Amino acid sequence: MDDPVWDPSTFSKNRERLLACDIAGAFFRSVRSQAEAAKLLTDEHFSVDDTLIEAWASLKSFRPQGTDTQNPPGSGGGRNAEVNLRGEKRRNDTHRSTTDPEARLYRKGKGKEAKLSFMGHVLMENRNGLAVGTRLTMATGMAERAAAISMLEDLLTSHRITVAGDKAYDDARFVRELRGLNATPHVAQKDKSSTIDGRTTSHPGYGVSQRIRKRLEEIFGWLKTLPFLRKTRHRGKGKVPGSLHSP
């Protein structure tokens, strides 16, 4: 109790060690193994979903590639110069954030505000609603399905499983890859040109999967309130995933 507190430089060194090592991932796997030992996890039915995690970067930093970061366009002096963005078309293929180049401008749906974000993904076991896999990717239109396949490949199951998801996963290539992993796609049907046929939707388990998958919102709510992952506290994708490795 009488020991002096850490010197700030010592704290910084230990923080870097924590970020560089897979401490959070090891903690996640340890807790998951305890849940397995207590028979709280099954290996038959799963759900997958994603959420946007706002990057630690402002829209003012989203500038055309090659912009001089020391002398940004705008008026006024100081670090936070005024910038007129009216009428400017900004796209991820022509612009980058000077604060966090890995962040991408993304909106979750029509009418939603576009923000510089990353995308967090969770694979949930359906019986008890526990997270069994996580990923953090750059926010792109293909990220949610690619991350889902990656997490499912890590399960290493040899028997058939079911995977529930929302309409964003009703994609021909994704459904084909699921079947290749010996997984039955219990994803919500799009209004038109759905890849999920009546043989799947007529099965009683399909309706159950669609109800249970909504528990994933509870996991996202927990991530964004208790660990404060509504917005990142670090710049760069590589420093964020550790916070996602929590059940």
Give the tags.
flat, Nucleotidyltransferase, domain 5, two-stranded antiparallel ribbon, 247 residues, six-stranded mixed β-sheet, single chain, alpha/beta, 2 domains
Write the layout of secondary structure elements.
Elements: H1 8-20, H2 23-37, E1 45-54, E2 62-64, E3 95-97, E4 104-106, E5 115-125, E6 130-138, H3 143-153, E7 161-165, H4 172-180, E8 183-187, H5 198-201, H6 204-212, H7 216-225, H8 241-244
Parallel strand pairs: 1-7, 7-8
Antiparallel strand pairs: 1-5, 2-3, 4-5, 5-6
Describe this structure in words.
By secondary structure, this protein is of the alpha/beta class. The protein folds into 2 domains: about 10-55 and about 115-245, Ribonuclease H-like superfamily/Ribonuclease H (Nucleotidyltransferase, domain 5), CATH 3.30.420; about 60-100, no CATH class. It contains 8 helices and 8 strands. It has helices at about 10-20, 25-35, 145-155, 170-180, 200, 205-210, 215-225, 240-245, and strands at about 45-55, 60-65, 95, 105, 115-125, 130-140, 160-165, 185. Strands 1, 4, 5, 6, 7 and 8 form a 6-stranded mixed beta sheet that branches. A hairpin with a 4-residue loop joins strand 5 and strand 6. The radius of gyration is 21 Å and the shape is flat. The mean pLDDT is about 85.
